[in-house]
Amino acid sequence: REAGGEMSVLEELRFGDGDEEEGDLEDDGGWMFCFAFDPDTNEWSRLSTGTEAQKVGKTESISISSYNIMAEPTADPFTTRLPLIIEALSSPITPSPSSLQILTLQEVNDESLPLILSSPYIRKIYPYSTHAPSSLLPSARNLVTLASEPFTSTVISFEERHKSALIASFDFESGSETKRLVIANVHLTSGLTDKAVKAKKEQMEKLSMFLLLNRGSKSETEVVVAGDFNLTTSTRTVETALSRGLITAETAQTVGKVIDLGGWEDAFLTPGCGPGSGFENEVDLVGHDGQEIFEGEQGATFDRTTNPIATVLEPPIDRSPQRYDRVLYRKGGSISSVGLEIFGLPNEEGRCGSDHYGVRATLNITGSGISISGTLRKNDIRNVVNKIPVVEDTTDFTPLIKPYLPTQSDISQREHAIQLLHDTFSKGGGLEGLILVPLGSYLMGTYFADSDVDVLAIGSVSPSIFFEFAARELRKLDAGGEGGDGEHFKGVHFVNSLVSIVEVCVLGIKFDLQYCQAEELIRAYQVATPSPSLPDLVFDKSLISTLAPSSIRPLNTYRDSAYLLLTIPHLPSYRLAHRYLTLYLKTHGLYSAKFGYLGGIHLQLMLNRVVKLISRSTSTTPNTDQEIPPISPATIVRTFFTYYTTFNWTAENITDPFLDPPSKVPRSARDAIFIPAIHTPTARPNVASSCTRLTAHTFSSQFALAARHLESGDWEWPLRSKKACLADFLGGSGA
After folding, report:
1. Which H/E stretch holds residue 128?
2. Can you give the pTM of this predicted structure?
3. Out of 70, 99, 505, 515, which could bridge 61 as a Cys pair, Cβ 3.0 to 4.6 Å?
């Protein structure tokens, strides 16, 4: 009732069964205009005319976010979680102002609805909503859709009580045409039981029939489905449920057929579009925390291993991560996915706003002019990002590092030791065809006289057979070499519980030995005459696809180094620069991955980025076959220090500029420094996972100090003894 006594409509409620909603996608009695926020009155009110409700201008792209904001009775009060939810929603890359922005929420209740709609961020970015703060909600968990432009909406009811899909319809300009976009917000039945899976399948079939078959007179209608599908994706969970008799074999098969990929595209699985890029074809099995995961757990949005709220919820079957939340779009239509982000991961304090993570997809519509302009903007940004201020210098610092370089005797001794290892493994045990290849600094040519040697053995037998044979034979070899009694032999131990390593000393040289079972690779290597090069084989996708993740993991250590050897320009200069920087890090106490500083692999990837950026920045003809102008080691070293002095460790990633996309490893909020491995799965997807914000600050300040000394021509200062560095430190601290 108004102040003057007149009655006014706050909200219209429809009654009736779900059948009346299964019609044409034209505006009929089932469609309602959305609510709009008026900043002048500070109120939400329903739009009343079709023309007013559907004035959507030219849309160049669509950004659609989906977030289950949790309505569990055990959850913390929504007032305490709202800031985290808003932080999560606003954290992904902001779409261009011309894009249509849509937000689909699940598990909205009477407590959360008015709080969400009172948020200044929501009112600014999503001023149109299916609901107002005063709306009556039919259940404890409800669907709400918001957008940056006006729309109409309707509801499709499913068989199960309080289960439905919330449909929003937008008309917008695309070139000279008017197109219609329909967005379905869903929250399917939960659980992995025969009954629950059957219900999910029926719900998706009903929704698909409504959206795909009844697109009305608008031939240019595009459809998107976003929300919480509650669909178990982890093969580990499905297999566990099957083994316990919780589901039938038929249900186990049905789980993968609930979403008909013949009619729908999954934005997560679109190659090159985000954390899920190409997962359907590759073996990149790493989770949000960088640990090993099983098939179907990639890009999990409900993850008890990383989400502190989800962790305390008791699992019905197991604790495996699940990709419940998705964005689908009609296959064969005008829509294409250009990016997908997962947001709402733990912040710097390790807190989340919900037990789910959210997903945000960026979609293009063919013919809207976005594809070309979007590509140009992306290329322009990449060209800017892939430039680096080059600090040129011709100083020859070779005499300074020469005392530390391996002599001819050191080189011969390592070659002899590796041959001894190979001969030892060739004695029997099914290892006659074994391939033994060096890794790390030895393979890269950046090792010193006192460096350890990392080696990978590739064979046909199982890891257990190999390590049993290796432990027995290497103990004998170690006992017969320098050091006697096998005192350097440590047997098999593990890295991150994923990669088995044997430590052994041969001719006084410490070796770390890994093993990869790759029968097909061995066969391919032996069949051809002459044998093909190993790099050709390890980058053969068809061959690699035959290997299990447990085999790929150690092999990727070699693949990373092989890739760098094949792609790093100015390799001789890179090697000298790497050695100079290694000595600098060691003398200044910055070389210890165990204690959160840098190790060989960190420096390898950091320097790789710098050298490639220098190459791009100095090349005038990057797309031709003309000879690349040489770059001195001194230029690389000085540019390295200058670049990382001002590097934004929190916001920027140390990726390979030649790769596109740069990395498939997701960055966690806990990562102070992010240096993703080139190939995954691997023991440490972020090789800098042990680094802290304090060490990042230390790197910046120490690199700045080194840069100043080199600018003055003092190339000896960075290589001073540890004693001199300690004296400086104590003097500077007043001790």
Report:
1. strand 128-129
2. 0.54
3. 99
